[in-house]
Amino acid sequence: MRDVARSLACALGALVVLAVPAVAQEAASASVDPSAPPAAQSTPVSPGTLTVERVPSGWVISPDVTMTEFNKEVGTLIGAYGGWLSDRTWLLGMGGYWLANNTHNEGMAYGGVVVQAMAHGDRRIGFAVKALVGGGEATVTAPYRDVYGTPASNSLPDIVFGHGGRPGRPSHQPTPPPVITPNTQLVFHEGFFIAEPQAQLMWNVSSNVRLTFGAGYRIIAGADPVNDRLRGPIGSVSVEFGGGH
Hints:
Blueprint: H1 2-31, E1 58-70, E2 73-86, E3 90-99, E4 107-119, E5 125-143, H2 144-148, E6 185-206, E7 209-221, H3 227-230, E8 232-242
Antiparallel strand pairs: 1-2, 1-8, 2-3, 3-4, 4-5, 5-6, 6-7, 7-8
């Protein structure tokens, strides 16, 4: 009987020893929130947001008024330029200008390709560099002395008139030509090549309207002997419309 009681006591003790750790483990598992992520598991990082914005591009047209030196005097040029403006940065287009007070013996008109590069085009105040490269024609009147210098005598010299530069007098004239003096007014009608770079200050009134103030220089070639009467400094005011939102 004692052996049986002793065996039962040993078996009971063994059960207690085995049950206590299991109960403790269950209690620990029950105390942990099943909805909470494991401590060793890292919190997943949400992917970043990709934002797609439309590039502000579009057609631009700009009327332009330019003050300049023409034939050693102050003149006014009116015209316009326009083209495609990409990303408020690059404009490629065409432009044309003519002298506002053209007369029979004085006038100028030219045109060509226009390239403009902008900086801070999306801000209130921006900057740009613009250039026109092309060609044109001009008519100027100037004293003989200012073009060729003082003649050695009162005889008729060889004079270059307009395109081609052919000297000499007409072969058939009913009366002798007038004598050329240092003050004789000569009329030149010449074609020319032009490059007109300028720097601009821009005021962005709105997303599609910009007021620009420019300063630069008109470079003339191919209009000998009156290149110096066609080239000169320029100052411009223009309003650009368009360019996209």
